[in-house]
Write a structure and sequence with these properties.
Layout: H1 2-20, H2 24-37, H3 41-47, H4 53-64, H5 70-81, H6 88-103, E1 105-112, H7 118-129, E2 138-145, E3 152-157, E4 160-165, H8 166-180
Parallel strand pairs: 1-2
Antiparallel strand pairs: 1-3, 3-4
Length: 187
């Protein structure tokens, strides 16, 4: 929990300085690059208690020097000086969440039984945009596959879940049969 709080504070600081210097889109591209790069061996290096801070900073600089903006480079140099490189993935996630909030982008987690085409995804997004609470938003679709839903889809936006799966329909039918099986209706 403490790392989350620290990550949010650093991400807010990065966002504030990016807005102040009018470099939000540049920093966002840098964060996306760092997010992709810190998923493998680099993440292990950054979290290693054996490798000294100056070595970590040198490795990081060697990889990203010239590939990220000066603002981003200076921010991450500060991050290493403060010994917060362990929290780097959380900082990147928190920055992306802040960016999405600033731009009005919602994440739509789409779960289907089989992979769906781009046209189907666009149709689902269009249907959500017709709803008053989502009309002003843009969506970033994240796909997941789950064969247990049998067909249809599950769409989660924030804390709201829209269940249009065959599994849900079958459970509703089963519930109706169980409730009404032995009850004689009186007219």
């Amino acid at each position: 929990m403490r790392n989350t709080r620290v990550a949010r504070r650093y991400a807010k600081a990065l966002m504030d300085i990016a807005v102040e210097t009018n470099q939000v889109e540049t920093v966002k591209k840098d964060v996306d690059l760092l997010k992709v790069a810190t998923t493998g061996e680099l993440d292990l290096v950054l979290k290693s208690p054996i490798i000294r801070q100056d070595k970590k900073q040198a490795i990081f600089s060697a990889i990203f020097e010239g590939k990220v903006s000066q603002l981003t480079s200076m921010f991450f140099r500060l991050l290493f000086e403060k010994g917060r490189e362990i929290v780097l993935p959380e900082i990147l996630d928190a920055f992306n969440a802040s960016y999405r909030k600033m731009k009005g982008i919602e994440i739509l987690e789409l779960t289907t039984a089989v992979a769906v085409s781009d046209e189907v995804k666009a149709s689902i997004v269009d249907n959500f945009k017709k709803m008053p609470e989502y009309s002003a938003n843009t969506f970033e679709v994240k796909e997941k596959l789950d064969e247990s839903i049998l067909g249809g889809f599950l769409a989660q936006i924030g804390d709201k879940l829209y269940d249009a799966s065959i599994r849900n329909d079958l459970q509703a039918i089963k519930k109706q049969f169980v409730e009404n099986m032995y009850i004689q209706k009186i007219r």
